[in-house]
Write a structure and sequence with these properties.
Elements (H helix, E strand, L loop, with lengths): L2 H25 L4 H20 L1 H5 L2 H5 L4 E10 L5 E12 L5 E7 L5 H17 L6 E6 L8 H15 L8 E4 L6 H15 L19 H18 L9 E4 L4 H12 L3 E7 L2 E4 L6 H10 L8 H7 L2 E4 L10 E3 L9 H9 L4 E3 L8 H10 L2 E3 L1 H4 L2 H15 L5 H23 E2 L2 E2 L1 H19 L4
Parallel strand pairs: 3-4, 3-5, 6-7, 6-10, 10-11, 11-12
Antiparallel strand pairs: 1-2, 2-4, 7-8, 8-9, 13-14
Helix pairs in contact: 1-2, 1-13, 2-5, 2-17, 5-17, 6-7, 8-9, 8-15, 8-16, 12-13, 15-16, 16-17
Bound molecules: NADPH dihydro-nicotinamide-adenine-dinucleotide phosphate (NDP) and (2Z)-2-iminopentanedioic acid.
């Protein structure tokens, strides 16, 4: 389908999608991120479902937007000053058709039920794309890790697990990290789970190497995005070599993305946070990257500290998307790129956008990229490497065995290539591949078939 036909098809189908969305919005009032995630998927799936009435008759999409279970709970703990703190905890167990619930935990003050539902819905399709048997979930809390001591983080994690442990287990639901939750937090969560249940088991992924963690899990999301990018560029006879790339967040995903891009000969020239961005025309590498790796993940420090340390340009109050580039890769959080940012990127010659964060582009900006006919990779395909290696960690835990770094990296690369193949097989129209459509349909079919085979549960 040409890009002009893309937008025409969207208009013709708008009525069916609007009807569907009306019901979703009435049932989930005010949950804007959830509406956004469902709308993106429904726009691709409703025409497909029309051609495949068995999915329509079984009401698969209607069932998929209803979480199997939502757990919301109080987390009370005492900070270092002896003051009582109250946070809210969440776990949305969205879909277990193809495996135990699986997905990260996010600790950030912006966390709401809407974001948890949106991300667990995305996770269901993402996990299906990995080819591994994992259902979809997401959880977290509005706890703000910035400025907290190590002791406070531990006390919070223990209080959070005091409730969560009732609902998870290696064969029911296996959480992992996300924003604000890395190796340290997974350690404290695991320790508390073990104390409460007396079980040493693979209930979380992203564990420490010495106690059941997989090699390459910390690197997996960033490396996987780079592998997916290579596959996309190959379809245009291109490679990462010599390309100028913009990134935003500089946490787990952002820093290992930069590391792999450097290895492949590309140049990442920006990182950012809510306050502004750092511009480094020479590319973030060597000592600069080593410094950056710890800046957020270990020290929870702002992006400006990076500019100050190395005398780099700091642009206050602006987003990095105004810098001319070949490739844009948002690596921080949802809705980082809006229509205006997308217009600026296109105007400055950007010809590829790849979502590293979850839902970093608004639906309107995605449509603009698709209409412009540039390469565009949605998060559920591009960033699936993290959860894929989580799946491999589960496999290693079940076998009570560890694969080498090379073995895990090789499997990760194969999975990313496989996801790319799936996107092309469902999304290619003539010369153009609509990766959004490819990822949504391919992820959906496997879950839908499993739901039909398991009956009405
Ligand atoms: P980290 O906590 O390691 O890093 C998050 C980064 O994003 C930090 O630089 C943080 O800095 C920035 N950030 C967070 N919230 C905001 C905000 N509201 N506005 C601007 N910047 C923000 O998280 P990850 O690297 O793990 O996650 C990044 C993205 O990748 C998320 O969307 C996550 O869902 C997604 N993802 C993560 C995976 C994983 O395995 N960890 C797997 C797949 C996707 P600051 O708060 O100072 O702005
Ligand atoms: O968004 C994601 O895929 C993650 N945060 C990783 C989830 C996981 O279970 O490894």
């Amino acid at each position: 389908m040409s890009t002009a036909a893309n937008s025409l098809t969207r208009k013709i189908l708008a009525n069916d999608v609007d009807e569907f969305m009306k019901r979703v919005i009435i049932k989930n009032p005010g949950e804007y991120e959830f509406h956004q995630a469902v709308q993106e998927v429904a726009t691709c799936l409703i025409p497909f479902i029309k051609k495949n009435p068995r999915y329509r008759d079984a009401k698969i999409l209607e069932r998929m937007v209803e979480p199997e279970r939502v757990i919301m709970f109080r987390v009370s703990w005492e900070d270092d000053q002896g003051e009582i703190q109250i946070n809210r905890g969440f776990r949305v167990q969205m879909n277990s058709a193809i495996g135990p619930f699986k997905g990260g935990l996010r600790f950030h003050p912006s966390v709401t039920l809407s974001i948890m539902k949106a991300l667990s819905f995305e996770q269901t399709l993402k996990n299906s794309l990995t080819t591994l048997p994992m259902g979809g979930a997401k959880g977290g809390s509005d706890f703000d890790p910035r400025g907290k001591t190590d002791n406070e983080v531990m006390l919070f994690c223990q209080a959070f697990m005091n409730e969560l442990f009732h609902h998870i287990g290696p064969d029911t639901d296996v959480p992992a990290g996300d924003i604000g939750v890395g190796g340290r937090e997974v350690g404290y969560l695991f320790g508390q789970y073990k104390k409460l249940t007396k079980a040493f088991c693979g209930v979380l992924t992203g564990k420490g190497r010495a106690w059941g963690g997989s090699l390459i899990r910390p690197e997996a999301t960033g490396y996987g995005i780079s592998y997916f990018l290579e596959e996309m560029l190959k379809t245009k006879g291109e490679s990462v070599e010599g390309k100028t790339i913009l990134a935003s967040g500089y946490g787990n995903v952002g820093t290992f993305f930069i590391e792999k891009i450097n290895e492949l000969g590309g140049k990442v020239v920006t990182i950012s946070d809510e306050c502004g961005y750092v511009y480094d025309p020479d590319g973030i590498k060597g000592d600069k990257l080593e410094f950056l790796k710890d800046l957020w993940v270990v020290h929870r420090k702002p992006a400006k500290a990076f500019a100050d340390e190395f005398g780099l340009k700091w642009v206050e109050g602006k987003k990095p998307w105004e810098v001319p580039c070949d490739i844009a890769c948002p690596t921080a959080t949802q809705n980082e790129i809006d229509v205006e940012d997308a217009k600026t990127l296109l105007k400055n010659g950007c010809w590829c956008a790849i979502e590293a964060a979850n839902m970093p582009c608004t639906n309107e900006s995605i449509n603009l990229f698709l209409d412009a006919g540039i390469l565009f990779a949605p998060a559920k395909a591009a960033n699936a490497g993290g959860v894929a290696v989580s799946g491999l960690e589960m496999t290693q835990n079940s076998m009570r065995y560890n694969w080498s770094r090379e073995e895990v990296d090789q499997k990760l690369k194969q999975i990313m290539q496989d996801i790319h193949r799936q996107c092309v097989s469902y999304g290619k129209h003539g010369e153009y591949t609509n990766y959004v459509q490819g990822a949504n349909i391919s992820g959906f079919v496997k879950v839908a078939e499993a739901m039909i085979q398991q009956g009405l549960v």
